[in-house]
Write a structure and sequence with these properties.
alpha+beta; elongated
């Protein structure tokens, strides 16, 4: 019996989002809230983009203004082009769904939304989920087929980490080894049947 990766006494929560087809972007509906030390509590429903290449999560300038966020400090941000610039840092609270809630973050301000000054045209993205969120737990993203056999994309995240690694290399190596051993047995049985002399039928007297 396979041992459960979960430890008794620890409260686990999870979030799973499914997308039709092969998704080239993972877009999640989330809530961003002001921290509890703000005099007025505000919550905004935001379209979030999952970005495993980002070390820190980011919020758009337009949503920072909607929430009335005040910069906690100033940090540096470098994009794909390597240009480093100073940006405000904000304290926020992220709610992924009804169960995965109250993730406290220090996020940078970024140009993400169409309402940001110089923002991408038609972009509805107001938040970017980086590795500072994903590092709290374990996540999986991959393809599967629905009931009609059509390809779909899934993103699943559990928090906290169960510290049970998923090693695809080891899984594939074990599968290939079992397959090779099975094929070797088949070939051995086939060659043994080919080499064994056929018995002549007994003649009737």
């Amino acid at each position: 019996m396979k041992k459960s990766p979960y430890n008794k006494g620890i409260s686990y929560n999870a979030s799973t989002t499914r997308f039709n087809g092969i998704a080239n972007q993972l877009i999640l509906p989330v809530e961003i809230a002001t921290p509890d030390f703000y005099p007025e509590q505000k919550v905004e429903h935001v379209v979030a983009l999952l970005d495993t290449g980002a070390t820190r999560s980011a919020i758009s300038k337009s949503y920072a203004d909607k929430l009335g966020l005040q910069p906690t400090s100033v940090g540096s941000c470098s994009g794909v082009g390597g240009v480093i610039r100073e940006v405000p840092l904000y304290d926020v609270v992220l709610h992924l769904n009804e169960r995965v809630r109250n993730i406290k973050l220090l996020v940078i301000e970024a140009i993400l939304h169409k309402d940001d000054d110089g923002g991408p045209k038609n972009s509805e993205t107001g938040f970017l989920i980086g590795m500072d969120v994903l590092g709290f737990g374990d996540f999986f993203t991959g393809l599967y087929r629905d009931e009609e056999g059509k390809p779909c994309t899934m993103f699943s995240f559990r928090i906290p980490s169960a510290f049970e690694p998923v090693d695809y290399y080891q899984e594939v190596e074990a599968f290939n080894r079992r397959h090779a051993e099975k094929q070797a047995r088949i070939e051995f049985d086939r060659s043994r049947r080919t080499l064994s002399p056929k018995r002549k039928p007994k003649s009737k007297r």
